[in-house]
Amino acid sequence: MRCAIYCRISEDRSGEALGVTRQLDDARRLATDRGWTVVAEHVDNDLSALRGGRRPGYEALLQQVAAGQLDRIVVWHTSRLWRNRRERAEGIEHLKAAHVSVTSVKGPELDLSSASGRMMAGILGEFDTAESELKGERVSAAARQRAEQGRNHGSRRAFGYTKNGMEIIPEEADALRHAARQLLAGVPLGSITREMNEKGLLTVRGHAWSPGTLKDSLRLPRHAGLAVWRGDVVGRGQWPPIFTEDMHHALVALLNDPTRRTSTGNRAAYLLSGIARCGVCGSPITAHGSKRSTPGGKPRGMYRCRPPVGQAGYCVGRRRDWIDKYVTDVIIERLSRPDARDLLVDDARPDTEALRDEAGALRVRLDALADAFAVGDIDRGQLQSGTQRIRARLTEIDGLLAHTSRAPILVDLVEAEDVRSVWETIGLDRQRAVVQTLIDVVILPGGGGHREFDPTKVQITWKA
Fold first, then answer.
1. How many whole angstroms separate alpha carbon 35 and alpha carbon 99?
2. 121 and 201 assigned to the same domain
3. pLDDT score, position 403
4. Pair 332, 361 in one domain
5. 436 lies in a domain?
6. Which of 29, 100, 210, 407 could share a disulfide with 95, CB 3.0–4.6 Å?
7. C-alpha to C-alpha distance for 108 and 5, rounded to whole angstroms
8. HEC string of 255-308?
9. Angle, helix 85-98 to helix 56-66, in steps of 10 degrees
């Protein structure tokens, strides 16, 4: 009698595989007592079978069944073999076709080639599935209750917090705050990610940061002290926040904005690369090679347009140092004026406190609608109609609360006594962000042979 042993445990908190080791010991003992030959042992440690995820050990077991290498499977209990209805039905059919039986250390022997054996496997399996589903419902209800009470309810720790989720890790929290300030100040996400990796900071899984993982972390409501259940904010957490709510809403709005320009992988090396546009074809201006102003003279970097496909040559070519200096001087002059602080004012900013109160009231109305439907006071159509109206307004409020301003990008420059000295220290990424925030730049064509800069060939339009 050729048999294979299969062992599985859904959760291994210690990582020492003690649960499957005990299952293996019992299964080996049973096989020895019966005089069976164990030809293989398959183990899936720390893997649930309820949701139908991949189980390498189980897949290898079925391959042996299909190859006709087994007469019997030994498990500690049938619940170790199947928890998922679909997987159980398919597994029974595989074992039926191969005339393979199942023997449990803690359960009956199932001859799956017979109708009665398959019926028993199905009945036992339904009990196993129901047990898992009921446990899942209990765990889900308890997690929701913890969330509503503002207690930690997550299994994996969030970056910035200890495992229990209730205490801040200062170094990680400081890194998140710095990343958030940099992002709001206009520094690209890719640059912030590189800086975190250069500092040796790792994610909670021990990996290097990527723009995607940092983006997800910065958007977490938990970092603003908000408790979330399945994507919805259900109250305030009992843990200390890392960000203010206003900063959280600003980060979410910025990172969710579909119009936000993201890096394609190459870091911009010059002030106006990809920002300025050609006054003829409208295409972006990029840094492109160099040109000697006189034979044997010093080569000068150039800005050129990237004309549409099919168009030969370029429309505009200007010395990069002249253009950069002119645009820089124009911005510094504006930021040095007495009324520069007006650039920070956001007259359209909504009354955030009133909007938050309205959102809370709307969520209470959603719960009341659900209760009214449950007791039969309203029908399904009324429930759906009312829910849609309320959720539409909640979406609108979320958009208003997420309103961002240009203040984080400009504030240190506006408040500086010497704007130029601050400008020279903030770095290229910030400088480019200031340009994009304040002005549109168009470079116009002109006659050749000029040896002096002509400011009329650079069109600057201030943004409202």
1. 19
2. no
3. 44
4. no
5. yes
6. 100
7. 16
8. HHCCCCCCCCCCCCCCCCCCCCEECCCCCEEEEEEEEECCCCCCEEEEEEECCC
9. 30
- Whether residues 334 and 358 share a domain: the answer is no
What's the structural domain count of the chain? Answer: 4
Separation of CA 241 from chain center: 19
CA 251-253-257 angle, to 5 degrees, is 120
Q: Helices 407-414 and 320-335 meet at what angle, rounded to 10? A: 80
Cα 200 to Cα 23, 194, 205, 208, 429: the distances in Å are 41, 10, 14, 8, 22
Q: Is 132 found in the same domain as 24?
A: yes
Tens digits of residue pLDDT in 370-415: 888 888 889 888 888 998 899 888 878 776 665 455 677 888 898 8
Residue 8 has a pLDDT of: 86
* Residue ranges of the chain whose pLDDT lies below 50: 14, 264-265, 403
Dist CA 326 CA 453 (whole Å): 9
Amino acid occupying residue 97: A
Range of the domain at 323: 277-345+418-462
Q: Last residue of some domain: 189, 222, 256?
A: 256
CB 415 within 8 A of CB 376: no
**Contact predicate 349/403, CB 8 Å:** yes
